Amino acid sequence: MVHVSLRKVDPATNQHSDAVLTESNDPAFPWTRMLEGRLVASANVARDLDGSKACFFVFTDLSIRQEGQFRLLFKLFVIGPPAAGMPASDEGGGRLVAEALTGPFTVYSPRRFPGMTESTELAKCLARQGIQVPIRNDVRRRPEQSDSTSTLNEDQRT
C-alpha cells in the first residue's frame, strides 16, 4: 500500500515542509485539508512501456486546495506478517519500506490554470490494461486573454 502526503515548497530556499491544513470559507469548519481525494492506493500489477511486469500505485483523484509550489511524498508500506529476514513492526498497521519525493510542481488557481495536457504514454498503457486511469487524448489550453479583457470580464460579473 502507498500513502501520499503533501509538502509545501518555499521558492526562496527550495526547502519543503508539511502542508496539511488550509483556511476554509466555511465558518463552521475553519480549516480544511489541503490535499483532497483518495490518499492511499493498492498495488496494480501491469506491464510497463517496455512490456515488463511492474507494480503501479495509481492516484487518480488528488486535488490541492491552494495555489503554490508543492511536492508529493509517497510512502510504501507492507501490510501483514513480516517476510523472512524482515524486522517486525512495533506499530500496528504495517512497515514502512520505502519513500519517494517528487520534484516541485506548481498548483494554479482555477483562474490562472493554463489547461490540461495530453495523458502520458504510461497512463495510456495502463488504461489499455484495464487500470482505471482517466485519459485525455488532446491538449486543452485556456484561451489567452489580454489584461483589458480580463478586467472587463471581472467588471461585468459584479
From TrEMBL:
It is found in: Nucleus. Residues 146-158 have a biased composition (Polar residues). Residues 136-158 are annotated as: Disordered. Keywords: Nucleus, Transcription, Transcription regulation. Pfam families: Velvet. It comes from the Eukaryota. Residues 1-136 form the Velvet domain. One of its GO terms (cellular component) is nucleus. PANTHER family: SPORE DEVELOPMENT REGULATOR VOSA, VELVET COMPLEX SUBUNIT B. This is Velvet domain-containing protein. It comes from Testicularia cyperi. The lineage of its organism: Eukaryota, Fungi, Dikarya, Basidiomycota, Ustilaginomycotina.
